[in-house]
Amino acid sequence: SFGDVNNLGFGDLDPSGELIVSTRVRVGRSHASYGFPPVITKEDRINMEKISVEALQTLEGELSGQYYPLTGMTPDTQAKLTADHFLFNDSDRFLKAANGYDDWPTGRGIYFSQDKTFLCWVNEEDHLRLISMQKGGNLGEVYKRLVKAIEQMEKKLTFAKKDNMGYLTFCPSNLGTTMRASVHIKIPKVSQMPDFKEICDKYNLQARGIHGEHTESVGGVYDISNKRRMGLTEFEAVTEMMRGVNEIIRLEKS
């Protein structure tokens, strides 16, 4: 359950704009009628890309945008999109070992809205990754945009879901809501506290470097997100992250 998007109870977590650099919420989705990356064929990937792009092209308003297939993309465009945190690549050794990159780059691509606040990765690790993001700390706007996109996509596509596991994803760590709500936040003071990890654990948060999993922090900027995806609703997951980030901001400013 996404909660009542018109009455969320949260908006901008950092109105002064001093600490939060950007905010991002994403979910993963799998097509109900196709298997995970290691067991599908090249033809499957092409067909999945086709139905995904058709659904994406029905998005309107702030969600409307353009799809860029990886096949035939120039190295310059690829480098720029990767540097801007928009594009994925085939360099994760764990995903490679799990045959996640078979037939690369066939069937892969990225869709983004005109102002790049909504993106969709097609056939990266998951069949679809829907991502809402923007500069600053307005979690309310980011979350609402994502929910709107998911609801629109569901009119065209059927996603794989199981009663006791939630939405099905290639990586088991995303099962359930599949939702990861995160901020890039400047916390030079809190991050040096000896109990920084305990603070994160208390609020079910995960802290990592800004260049993704297994990376270190740069200049006191951390990526802070909700740790729990399963056993709670989407609204509860994003609220949990909001409470934890509010506490970290309070400690940083105290």
Describe this structure in words.
The chain has 6 helices and 10 strands; from the N terminus they run βαβααβββαβββαββα. It has helices at 42-56, 75-83, 93-97, 139-154, 196-202, 234-253; strands at 20-29, 65-69, 109-113, 118-122, 128-135, 161-162, 166-167, 180-186, 205-208, 221-226. It is globular, with a radius of gyration of 18 Å. The two termini are 35 Å apart. The mean pLDDT is 93.
Blueprint of the fold:
Layout: E1 20-29, H1 42-56, E2 65-69, H2 75-83, H3 93-97, E3 109-113, E4 118-122, E5 128-135, H4 139-154, E6 161-162, E7 166-167, E8 180-186, H5 196-202, E9 205-208, E10 221-226, H6 234-253
Q: What is the count of helical runs? A: 6
State the separation between the terminal residues, measured CA to CA: 35 Å
Shape assignment: globular
Query: How much of the sequence is in beta strands?
Result: 15-25%
Percent helix: 25-40%
Q: Point out poorly predicted stretches.
A: none
Give, in spatial order, the strands making up the sheet with the most strands.
Answer: 2-3-4-5-1-8-10-9
Overall number of strands: 10
Query: Overall mean pLDDT score?
Result: 93
For the CA atoms, what is the radius of gyration?
Answer: 18 Å
Largest sheet: 8 strands, antiparallel
The string of secondary-structure elements, in order, is EHEHHEEEHEEEHEEH
Task: State the secondary-structure class.
Answer: alpha+beta
Brief rundown of the structure:
With 254 residues, this protein is an alpha+beta fold. It is built from six helices and ten strands. Strand 4 and strand 5 (128-135) form a beta hairpin.
Keywords:
254 residues, alpha+beta, 6 helices
